[in-house]
Protein backbone atom coordinates (compact mmCIF):
# COMPACT_ATOMS: atom_id res chain seq x y z
CA UNK A 1 0.00 0.00 0.00
CA UNK A 2 1.39 3.39 -1.02
CA UNK A 3 2.33 5.79 1.76
CA UNK A 4 1.69 9.46 1.06
CA UNK A 5 2.93 10.97 4.32
CA UNK A 6 4.80 14.17 3.55
CA UNK A 7 3.24 14.46 0.09
CA UNK A 8 1.31 17.54 -1.06
CA UNK A 9 -1.36 16.74 -3.64
CA UNK A 10 -3.88 18.85 -5.56
CA UNK A 11 -7.20 17.35 -6.70
CA UNK A 12 -9.75 19.21 -8.81
CA UNK A 13 -13.45 18.42 -8.76
CA UNK A 14 -12.97 17.47 -5.13
CA UNK A 15 -16.65 17.70 -4.18
CA UNK A 16 -17.85 15.24 -6.82
CA UNK A 17 -18.31 11.49 -6.54
CA UNK A 18 -14.94 10.48 -7.95
CA UNK A 19 -13.06 13.53 -6.67
CA UNK A 20 -14.25 13.04 -3.09
CA UNK A 21 -13.32 9.36 -3.23
CA UNK A 22 -9.83 10.25 -4.46
CA UNK A 23 -9.34 12.87 -1.74
CA UNK A 24 -10.54 10.52 1.01
CA UNK A 25 -8.38 7.65 -0.23
CA UNK A 26 -5.24 9.79 -0.36
CA UNK A 27 -5.83 11.45 3.01
CA UNK A 28 -6.35 8.08 4.65
CA UNK A 29 -2.85 7.22 3.45
CA UNK A 30 -1.23 10.30 4.90
CA UNK A 31 -1.35 12.81 2.04
CA UNK A 32 -1.97 16.51 2.50
CA UNK A 33 -4.64 17.11 -0.13
CA UNK A 34 -5.79 20.48 -1.40
CA UNK A 35 -9.13 20.03 -3.10
CA UNK A 36 -10.40 22.46 -5.72
CA UNK A 37 -13.98 22.86 -6.87
CA UNK A 38 -16.55 25.46 -7.89
CA UNK A 39 -17.58 25.90 -4.26
CA UNK A 40 -15.37 25.87 -1.18
CA UNK A 41 -15.84 23.27 1.53
CA UNK A 42 -13.88 21.33 4.16
CA UNK A 43 -10.43 20.79 2.68
CA UNK A 44 -11.61 22.31 -0.58
CA UNK A 45 -10.82 25.72 -2.07
CA UNK A 46 -13.06 27.44 -4.62
CA UNK A 47 -11.55 27.87 -8.09
CA UNK A 48 -13.30 28.61 -11.38
CA UNK A 49 -11.51 26.35 -13.83
CA UNK A 50 -13.06 28.17 -16.78
CA UNK A 51 -11.12 31.28 -15.71
CA UNK A 52 -7.54 31.14 -17.02
CA UNK A 53 -6.47 34.13 -14.93
CA UNK A 54 -7.81 32.50 -11.76
CA UNK A 55 -5.80 29.36 -12.50
CA UNK A 56 -2.65 31.43 -12.98
CA UNK A 57 -3.25 33.24 -9.68
CA UNK A 58 -3.74 29.92 -7.92
CA UNK A 59 -0.43 28.64 -9.23
CA UNK A 60 1.38 31.82 -8.25
CA UNK A 61 0.05 31.49 -4.71
CA UNK A 62 1.34 27.97 -4.11
CA UNK A 63 3.89 27.77 -1.31
CA UNK A 64 6.06 24.67 -1.22
CA UNK A 65 6.47 21.56 -3.34
CA UNK A 66 3.63 19.78 -5.10
CA UNK A 67 4.07 16.03 -5.44
CA UNK A 68 0.95 15.25 -7.43
CA UNK A 69 -1.95 16.73 -9.37
CA UNK A 70 -5.23 15.03 -10.24
CA UNK A 71 -7.17 16.85 -12.97
CA UNK A 72 -10.57 15.37 -12.22
CA UNK A 73 -12.98 18.32 -12.56
CA UNK A 74 -15.32 18.27 -15.54
CA UNK A 75 -18.64 19.45 -16.82
CA UNK A 76 -19.80 15.89 -16.48
CA UNK A 77 -23.17 15.64 -18.23
CA UNK A 78 -22.19 13.62 -21.31
CA UNK A 79 -25.20 14.80 -23.31
CA UNK A 80 -25.34 18.15 -25.03
CA UNK A 81 -28.27 19.45 -27.05
CA UNK A 82 -29.06 17.80 -30.40
CA UNK A 83 -26.23 18.43 -32.84
CA UNK A 84 -28.24 20.86 -34.96
CA UNK A 85 -28.85 23.00 -31.87
CA UNK A 86 -25.40 22.75 -30.30
CA UNK A 87 -24.10 26.24 -29.61
CA UNK A 88 -20.50 27.36 -29.91
CA UNK A 89 -20.75 28.75 -26.37
CA UNK A 90 -21.64 25.32 -24.96
CA UNK A 91 -18.83 23.67 -26.91
CA UNK A 92 -16.29 26.20 -25.70
CA UNK A 93 -17.46 26.02 -22.07
CA UNK A 94 -17.11 22.24 -21.91
CA UNK A 95 -13.68 22.26 -23.54
CA UNK A 96 -12.53 25.11 -21.29
CA UNK A 97 -13.19 23.11 -18.12
CA UNK A 98 -12.59 19.56 -19.32
CA UNK A 99 -9.55 20.04 -21.55
CA UNK A 100 -8.01 23.51 -21.33
CA UNK A 101 -8.04 23.72 -17.52
CA UNK A 102 -5.91 20.56 -17.05
CA UNK A 103 -3.31 22.05 -19.38
CA UNK A 104 -3.34 25.44 -17.66
CA UNK A 105 -3.22 23.97 -14.16
CA UNK A 106 -0.32 21.72 -15.09
CA UNK A 107 1.49 24.75 -16.51
CA UNK A 108 0.72 26.82 -13.41
CA UNK A 109 2.21 24.16 -11.13
CA UNK A 110 5.35 23.52 -13.19
CA UNK A 111 7.56 25.70 -10.95
CA UNK A 112 6.29 23.84 -7.88
CA UNK A 113 6.41 20.20 -8.96
CA UNK A 114 8.88 18.14 -6.96
CA UNK A 115 11.27 15.85 -8.81
CA UNK A 116 9.35 12.66 -9.54
CA UNK A 117 5.93 14.30 -9.25
CA UNK A 118 2.93 12.73 -10.96
CA UNK A 119 -0.07 14.11 -12.83
CA UNK A 120 -3.17 11.97 -13.31
CA UNK A 121 -5.85 13.22 -15.66
CA UNK A 122 -9.34 11.76 -15.35
CA UNK A 123 -10.74 10.97 -18.77
CA UNK A 124 -13.77 8.84 -19.58
CA UNK A 125 -14.68 5.68 -21.44
CA UNK A 126 -16.61 8.10 -23.67
CA UNK A 127 -13.28 9.10 -25.16
CA UNK A 128 -13.51 5.73 -26.93
CA UNK A 129 -17.26 5.14 -27.39
CA UNK A 130 -20.28 7.40 -27.70
CA UNK A 131 -24.01 7.91 -27.47
CA UNK A 132 -25.92 10.40 -29.64
CA UNK A 133 -25.53 14.07 -28.75
CA UNK A 134 -22.35 13.70 -26.72
CA UNK A 135 -19.96 15.61 -28.98
CA UNK A 136 -18.72 18.13 -26.40
CA UNK A 137 -18.00 15.62 -23.66
CA UNK A 138 -16.54 12.95 -25.94
CA UNK A 139 -14.25 15.43 -27.70
CA UNK A 140 -13.04 16.94 -24.44
CA UNK A 141 -12.23 13.56 -22.92
CA UNK A 142 -10.62 12.25 -26.09
CA UNK A 143 -8.49 15.36 -26.15
CA UNK A 144 -7.51 14.80 -22.53
CA UNK A 145 -6.26 11.30 -23.34
CA UNK A 146 -4.03 12.74 -26.07
CA UNK A 147 -2.95 15.69 -23.93
CA UNK A 148 -1.82 13.25 -21.25
CA UNK A 149 0.68 11.41 -23.41
CA UNK A 150 1.89 14.66 -24.96
CA UNK A 151 2.55 16.12 -21.51
CA UNK A 152 4.31 12.93 -20.45
CA UNK A 153 6.82 13.31 -23.26
CA UNK A 154 7.30 17.04 -22.70
CA UNK A 155 7.81 16.72 -18.95
CA UNK A 156 10.06 13.69 -19.20
CA UNK A 157 11.73 12.34 -16.08
CA UNK A 158 10.69 15.14 -13.71
CA UNK A 159 6.90 14.66 -13.88
CA UNK A 160 5.07 11.51 -14.93
CA UNK A 161 1.66 11.96 -16.59
CA UNK A 162 -1.04 9.32 -17.05
CA UNK A 163 -4.75 9.26 -17.79
CA UNK A 164 -7.45 7.16 -16.08
CA UNK A 165 -10.77 6.81 -17.91
CA UNK A 166 -13.63 5.62 -15.69
CA UNK A 167 -16.65 3.82 -17.02
CA UNK A 168 -19.95 3.70 -15.12
CA UNK A 169 -19.28 4.84 -11.55
CA UNK A 170 -22.21 5.09 -9.15
CA UNK A 171 -22.62 6.24 -5.53
CA UNK A 172 -23.01 3.52 -2.93
CA UNK A 173 -26.67 4.41 -2.34
CA UNK A 174 -27.65 4.25 -6.01
CA UNK A 175 -30.53 1.94 -6.90
CA UNK A 176 -29.13 -0.35 -9.56
CA UNK A 177 -30.68 -3.36 -11.26
CA UNK A 178 -29.19 -6.77 -11.90
CA UNK A 179 -29.12 -5.79 -15.56
CA UNK A 180 -27.06 -2.70 -14.73
CA UNK A 181 -24.48 -4.81 -12.95
CA UNK A 182 -24.69 -7.55 -15.57
CA UNK A 183 -23.48 -5.26 -18.35
CA UNK A 184 -20.05 -5.43 -16.73
CA UNK A 185 -17.87 -8.55 -17.05
CA UNK A 186 -16.73 -8.03 -13.45
CA UNK A 187 -20.38 -8.35 -12.39
CA UNK A 188 -20.99 -4.91 -10.92
CA UNK A 189 -21.13 -1.19 -11.58
CA UNK A 190 -18.03 0.72 -10.49
CA UNK A 191 -17.47 2.61 -7.25
CA UNK A 192 -15.51 5.76 -6.55
CA UNK A 193 -12.95 3.72 -4.66
CA UNK A 194 -12.19 1.72 -7.81
CA UNK A 195 -10.92 4.88 -9.46
CA UNK A 196 -9.28 6.27 -6.32
CA UNK A 197 -7.11 3.20 -5.79
CA UNK A 198 -5.83 3.27 -9.37
CA UNK A 199 -5.15 7.01 -9.19
CA UNK A 200 -3.27 6.56 -5.91
CA UNK A 201 -1.05 3.89 -7.43
CA UNK A 202 -0.23 6.11 -10.41
CA UNK A 203 0.62 8.97 -8.05
CA UNK A 204 2.90 6.76 -5.98
CA UNK A 205 6.54 5.85 -6.41
CA UNK A 206 5.41 2.27 -7.07
CA UNK A 207 4.37 3.47 -10.54
CA UNK A 208 7.67 5.24 -11.15
CA UNK A 209 8.22 3.43 -14.47
CA UNK A 210 4.76 4.28 -15.81
CA UNK A 211 4.09 7.43 -17.83
CA UNK A 212 2.16 8.48 -20.92
CA UNK A 213 -0.36 5.68 -20.48
CA UNK A 214 -4.15 5.51 -20.72
CA UNK A 215 -5.87 3.32 -18.13
CA UNK A 216 -9.48 2.31 -18.87
CA UNK A 217 -11.30 1.39 -15.66
CA UNK A 218 -14.77 0.29 -16.75
CA UNK A 219 -15.18 -3.22 -15.40
CA UNK A 220 -14.63 -4.57 -18.90
CA UNK A 221 -17.87 -3.02 -20.18
CA UNK A 222 -16.34 -1.56 -23.34
CA UNK A 223 -14.94 -4.98 -24.29
CA UNK A 224 -18.25 -6.86 -23.97
CA UNK A 225 -20.15 -7.59 -27.17
CA UNK A 226 -23.90 -7.21 -26.69
CA UNK A 227 -26.49 -8.62 -29.09
CA UNK A 228 -30.17 -7.75 -28.75
UniProtKB/TrEMBL annotation:
It holds the Pfam family adh_short_C2. Keywords: Oxidoreductase. One of its GO terms (molecular function) is oxidoreductase activity. Coiled coil: none annotated. The keyword Oxidoreductase applies. It comes from the Bacteria. Belongs to the short-chain dehydrogenases/reductases (SDR) family. This is Short chain dehydrogenase/reductase family oxidoreductase. It comes from Gallaecimonas xiamenensis 3-C-1.
Amino acid sequence: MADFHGKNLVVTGANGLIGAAICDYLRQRGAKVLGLDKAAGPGCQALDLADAAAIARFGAGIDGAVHGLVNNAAISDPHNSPLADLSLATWQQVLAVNLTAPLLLTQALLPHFAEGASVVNIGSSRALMSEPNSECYAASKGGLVALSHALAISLGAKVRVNCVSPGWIAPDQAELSLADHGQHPVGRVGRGSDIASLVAWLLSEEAGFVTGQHWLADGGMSRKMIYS
